[in-house]
Amino acid sequence: MLDIRKIHVPTPYQVGPVNCYLIRNRPYTLIDPGPESAEGRKGLLAGLTAADVRPDEIEQVIISHWHADHSGLARWLSEQWGAQIYVHRLEKPKLTPGYDKHAERLPFLREAGVPAGDLEEVLNDRDPLPGPLLPATRVNLLEGGEAFAFTGGEIQVIHMPGHTTGHICLYDTESRIFLAGDFILAHITPNPFMTARPEDPVKRVPVLAQYLTGLNRMKYMDIGVILTGHGENIDDCATSVEKVLEHRYKRLDVIADILDGAVLNPYQVMRTMYPAVRGFEILLGVSEVFACLDYLETRGKVRHEVQNGVSLYRHSS
Ligand SMILES: [Zn+2]
Ligand SMILES: [Zn+2]
Predict the structure, then answer these.
(1) Torsion angle, CA of 117/285/90/186, rounded to 10 degrees?
(2) How many A from CA of 191 to the centre of ligand 2?
(3) What is the pLDDT of residues 174-197, one digit of tens each?
């Protein structure tokens, strides 16, 4: 049986601390070590001390997805203490110097019809954390389907895109523990985040379709408890997955209703749903709307035409 310990590592984000997990079986392994900040290091080291583990005993670090609150400290653990890093290959470009998450999404914000003032707000709302980076060596890329062996058990790697393209979850078949990262949380619905296709960056990844596929996959898995990336564990997997699916389908209905008899750009749809959002939340709102519109369009419910570089959506019939 694996001995999995939860360590709360503080983040400057509204979501609160990130849950880092220590697998206290050899080789000692950390999953999502937390953000690169003085508070982050302190929190992680305190958690390791409480578990009676020294940082130089950490041999492996597994990153669920590239977001700074989860991945930031991986580089330090590798460069300072010699840990091997494991991350899905699709997350690697986001953990590379020069990657700019705003720049990746700028064409989509323009396509959405975001007005100049709001666009400036988004671009000026910078992240309080530095862009996370992988170390130059000791990086191992995952595909999904691999297994990590420990004295006393093993965990399987499952590629679960949606929140990010290279998001992975980890599954301990023996104890039926599912380490979810940000794929599913107890009290918040994770955002399937607007992402450019690696092979064709002017197009978006169908993030919502991917996310719904993952949720449906979880319905048929034998999961006892879900250990989440933030907040509490989820004890009733089936009910939680059902709830998220319901929430997602409701959101699709809301957007379909907004477009009933109307022709609107994604920014206008977003403002109808979230009239008050500002700064980076404008990007999150547009991301949410595009995720739904792309999904509705591939299912023939809506269609769009481009006018002056802005996409206008209407019902198909
Ligand atoms: Zn995340
Ligand atoms: Zn997170």
Answers:
(1) 140
(2) 10
(3) 999 999 999 999 988 888 899 999
